[in-house]
Amino acid sequence: MAKKNNDIINGSGNKNSPYILFSDGNGNIFEDTSLYVTGRSGWDALPVPADEWIALPSGGQLYELPDRKGIGIDVQTGEMRLCDKGWAVAAFIPPAFTGLYLAAYETLPGAATLPLFCYTAAGWKDDGFYVPAVRIEKDIRQESAGFEEHKINEGVNKFLTAYSHNRLVKHLAQNCCLTYHCPAARNYFMGRWECPIPTSPACNANCIGCISFQPQEETITSTQDRLMFKPTAEEIVEYTVPHLETAQYPIVSFGQGCEGEPLLMWETINEAIIEIRKHTQRGSININTNGSKPDAVKALCEAGLDSIRVSTNSVRAEIYTPYYRPNNYAFNDIVESLKIVNAYGGWTSINYFVFPGMTDSVDEYEALRKLISATGLKMIQWRNFNIDPDWYLGKIGVNETGERLGIKQMMQLVRDEFPDLKFGYFNPSIERIKGNFEMDFAH
Ligand code: SF4
pTM for the full model? Predict the structure, then answer.
């Protein structure tokens, strides 16, 4: 639970701030005009600067947080206090936007762990919902307005017929697209942009917030089930080559939310990349990975891998290790994997799980500067961390998050020091990697 911090607010009560939200526990959400909303950073509740609020973007959702009470600033006294009118409320902000503060609330004893979603602060003003966030990515590939159900269903029928014996296409259709509504799978069946290639039923890490596998003893469930078979190189090549040859801004990506670690299947991936490049030079071949096996990464670069995205909750080994709980690899292996792809001239990104108070701590910032310089990193994907904040900090044993910069301020410092480093949320196409990275997008 976040700590109220009256020392910080005296004299800075924010008249332009949105009002706090609360729910009646039945899904109805109301504003409390006696309290301005605060934001959470680490374990602290703080006032949010007026210029960091934006209207809740289209595709965003609001969550009521059972057994949690929101922390606000009294509009009269300027004192921080709890909202006793109902449960706290948070926002799930859509991909392409990065949250700058978490929802600030006090968790009551016995409260259940929250499911694997992001919990950004949210408030009400000027007849609308507001969140502290920035649009970090111009690409529109996951904008809800761009998905056309009839085209998706047409694509599913067409590809299931065209690849009737392909287990992967069946998995992408029945599970990813029609059950989990995975944006990558939906884009594949619409014949555009990034196409997913899940390959691995197993993983060599044990992430606390794994979205494809949660141990029995945990009370939360994974948001999707892990792949149950090992695809062949033939199955991979059969549907990815036509995608690369025909789609707009085509990317094919190994490493998806519905599998374990793709590098455990590197031999199959290696064979597939070699075969794909025999048929087409178009598009980008990318791997989303935990980066644990640098030797395998080297082999994939030799085969023709174009880009890598390494996921991490932190660039400090002491924060990374208690979260990833790695089997037979260490934090330095992921650094090595980034260096190797860079040495082969490939595109390197980190899939950076943003947690206000941790990501923008001074220690993390200093470690990030070192990693960028040491690896020649090309891009940071500032991703919202889909995890219960109390549960996360408790599990990795962090009681004090230290001095913080502010997420927005940290982004600016990194931009100033590394002007060629790109910011975003998604893997870029080869047209952006080799051409105009700042190109515009339209539905
Ligand atoms: S690396 Fe990915 S699949 Fe493996 S435990 Fe972590 S989140 Fe799960």
Answer: 0.96
